[in-house]
From TrEMBL:
Protein's UniProt name: AAA+ ATPase domain-containing protein
Start and end residues of each AAA+ ATPase domain: 41-179
SUPFAM superfamilies in the cross-refs: P-loop containing nucleoside triphosphate hydrolases
Residue ranges that the Swiss-Prot or TrEMBL entry lists as coiled coil: none
Pfam families per record: SLFN-g3_helicase
Superkingdom of the organism of origin: Bacteria
Length: 398
């Protein structure tokens, strides 16, 4: 994947070929598409993988190849097929549209958010041939007036309007109740439709060794393990946010793509002035609503802001400075990292659901999911500051 400032952050470089596992995935995927394109039932191809396992990179490469065959002058089984790549994430959609500008096989209209595509296909009674869905765990699982979605489940709707659906799915990256997927929620779809699943488990983004990955995974399960040692990965704990920010600025000057990001623990109202994130002596504004075509992480001025899960999910950074806000604490009686939903400021994430039972464990899981997303952004380094004094003390003691 690219690591310089000017490049889309999950695009493969010319030198970076797909890994053997990714190549196997692409081969299986094309075999599946050609087999199921003309079957009576929609075929589902599900790709699982944790943050940083290269899901978007292989999806982008496979979709480019699919569209090249669709638009080829030479007769192929996929010539003339009507295909789309869907993602329910504004910043990632911008990256995909950037890729379209660099690739003769792609058009910007190939990339869509789910609701407009569903509504158009329904209105015109059309069926798409192949629909790729990146970050399918962000699809809505209830109607949503704000997003003009009147159905009950966006995945159901996309399946109903497609011959083959290829979806990337990771329940550990669900960030809102309105798109909440239990790990078992895919099972009814898989029981009903012919399907194949493929698991990507090699970490491509975080260059740290297994100790580093295990430490992050442990943290997001409430365990504070011994601090890992890895000469090739810079994991640092800070007593104050200002020196952490100073170091992020130095890394950005040195290698680019280094940013401050934080849990959604600091008040923020869209289009109502400037809202700040505080971390000890540090005070920086939250990311602003980005109306440009350039993704947040690629704009130089955002070095002076703090990114959220919504601006950074799915992207590579070189170095990530992560502020763990007041909702993330430590229970000394049980020696566990804990999260406190009542201190989480992302009201949109916790909009009430009457169909999910007791919401508190789900709210806790959403906060831990967001921490996992943030901690797995940095390729070469993760810097941490905890606002909660008890958690900060235990982190520093490592």
């Amino acid at each position: 994947m690219q690591s310089n400032m000017s490049a889309a952050t999950f695009k493969l470089t010319d030198q970076a070929a797909l890994s053997p596992a990714q190549q196997r995935l692409e081969t299986q995927l094309f075999n599946f598409i050609t087999t199921h394109l003309n079957q009576k039932q929609t075929g589902l191809f599900v790709i699982h993988g944790d943050a940083g396992t290269g899901k978007s990179a292989v999806l982008a490469a496979a979709f480019s190849r699919l569209q090249a065959q669709s638009r080829s002058k030479d007769a192929t089984p996929l010539q003339g097929t009507d295909n789309y790549l869907v993602v329910n994430h504004n910043e990632m959609l911008k990256i995909y549209k950037q890729l379209a500008g660099d690739d003769p096989a792609l058009r910007k209209k190939d990339f869509q958010k789910p609701t407009p595509l569903i509504n158009r296909l329904a209105k015109t009674s059309q069926t798409a041939d192949v629909v790729f869905i990146d970050e399918a765990h962000l699809l809505l699982t209830q109607s949503d007036r704000y997003n003009r979605f009147n159905g009950h489940n966006q995945l159901s709707e996309l399946i109903n309007h497609s011959r083959v659906v290829v979806l990337v799915f990771d329940t550990r990256q669900v960030l809102k109740l309105k798109s909440y997927w239990h790990s078992a929620d895919l099972a009814p779809f898989l029981a009903h439709y012919p399907h194949t699943t493929f698991n990507l488990d090699q970490q491509f983004r975080v260059t740290g060794n297994d100790q580093v990955i295990n430490w992050i995974d442990g943290f997001t399960q409430g365990k504070l393990l011994s601090k890992p040692t890895d000469a090739n990965f810079d994991l640092q704990i800070f007593a104050d946010g200002q020196p952490m920010y100073d170091q992020i600025q130095q890394q950005d000057q040195r290698v680019g793509l280094s940013r401050m990001i934080a849990t959604a623990d600091f008040p923020y109202v869209v289009n109502h002035g400037t809202w700040y994130v505080t971390a000890g002596q540090l005070k920086l504004p939250w990311d602003k609503v980005n109306l440009t075509d350039e993704p947040w992480a690629l704009r130089p001025e955002t070095l002076n802001e703090v990114g959220s899960i919504y601006t950074i999910q799915g992207f590579d950074l070189n170095y990530a400075g992560v502020i763990l806000g007041p909702s993330v604490g430590y229970d000394e009686a049980h020696n566990r990292v804990i999260v406190r939903p009542e201190r989480y400021e992302d009201q949109e994430a916790f909009k009430k659901r009457s169909d999910l039972g007791n919401l508190e464990p789900l709210q806790q899981q959403i906060i831990f999911n967001s921490i996992n997303v943030l901690m797995k952004r940095g390729r070469y380094g993760l810097y941490l500051y905890a606002v909660d004094p008890v958690l900060r003390r235990h982190l520093l003691a490592l």
